[in-house]
Design goal:
Length: about 120
């Protein structure tokens, strides 16, 4: 199993348990997103604040201005899912390491996976 799949499974498990999703916010309340090719944009999500803090230390030039924010799983589904249904949007789950590696998946799969772990 790849490290990305392992991190994704940890994400599903932890979010199902805590019912909290973490994301990054840039100055001026702009959501952290990455271009991932094929005209797609990825919204990175994490299962804990400590994961974001660790990445900020590993990659301060990219993430130094990022503030960790959280939202309940219920509110995520209500507020974030509608904007993530676009074919050009995916979510990156528990990106890790200096190069922010992980997997990007459609939001619909994210919901199915978390609910399967719940």
């Amino acid at each position: 199993m790849s490290a990305g799949v392992t991190q994704a499974n940890k994400f599903y498990e932890e979010v199902a348990a805590t019912q909290i999703v973490w994301f990054g916010c840039l100055p001026n309340e702009i959501l952290l997103e990455f271009d991932v090719g094929d005209n797609k944009v990825s919204l990175p999500l994490w299962s804990s604040k400590s994961r974001i803090d660790r990445l900020k230390k590993l990659n301060p030039e990219l993430l130094g201005d990022v503030e960790a924010r959280n939202v309940s799983w219920a509110q995520f589904k209500e507020d974030f899912l509608p904007i993530l249904q676009d074919d050009e949007k995916v979510v990156g789950v528990n990106l890790s390491g200096k190069n922010l590696t992980g997997i990007d998946i459609p939001a619909s799969i994210l919901v199915k996976q978390i609910e399967a772990f719940g």
